[in-house]
């Protein structure tokens, strides 16, 4: 087994582990966001009830509750934006994994001697190459989407 093949296999395993760790971190953060959403929702409900039920309370108290409610809405919007970014990252990870698998398949066909390739092998190689281009284009679209989103936030 040549050294370069071992190196490629090791690098593929390392990148797979990095993607796996990143996916786990994203999943944990999405779960944290979900819990925070629920907490913010409960706080918002309490504040809304206070604002509706306490018409006799001082105006500055109502202003304070309104400000707290607006702060909760802003916090929820920020979390929704973060959640959206994380979902894009999940899609990107899936496409990255798919690209690595296609790369590996394509490499196995390309490493085969041309004289030993059957017409089916050549057809499969072309199909994999086509799929690889589609995955790269999808990743490019995701990157453009992130960039547009970032620019619109500025």
From TrEMBL:
Cross-referenced InterPro entries: bMERB_dom, F-actin_Monoox_Mical
Coiled-coil stretches: 23-50
One Pfam family from the record: bMERB_dom
This protein's record includes keyword NAD: no
GO molecular function terms noted in the UniProt entry: monooxygenase activity
Keywords on record: Coiled coil, Membrane, Monooxygenase, Oxidoreductase
Subcellular location: Membrane
Species for this entry: Catharus fuscescens
Stretches assigned to the BMERB domain: 13-154
Signal peptide annotation: none
First-listed, main subcellular location of the protein, grouped into a coarse class: membrane
Protein name stated in the entry: MICA1 monooxygenase
């Amino acid at each position: 087994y040549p050294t370069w093949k071992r190196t490629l296999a090791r690098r593929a395993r390392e990148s797979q582990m990095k993607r796996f760790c990143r996916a786990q971190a994203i999943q944990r953060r999405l779960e944290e966001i979900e819990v925070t959403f629920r907490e913010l929702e409960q706080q918002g409900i309490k504040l809304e009830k206070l604002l509706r039920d306490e018409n006799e309370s001082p105006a500055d108290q109502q202003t304070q509750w309104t400000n707290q409610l607006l702060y909760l809405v802003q916090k929820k919007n920020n979390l929704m934006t973060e959640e959206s970014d994380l979902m894009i990252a999940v899609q990107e990870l899936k496409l990255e994994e798919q690209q690595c698998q296609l790369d590996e398949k394509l490499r196995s066909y390309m490493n085969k001697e041309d004289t030993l390739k059957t017409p089916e092998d050549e057809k499969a190689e072309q199909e994999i190459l086509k799929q690889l281009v589609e995955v790269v284009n999808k990743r490019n679209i995701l990157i453009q989407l992130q960039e547009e989103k970032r620019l619109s936030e500025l």
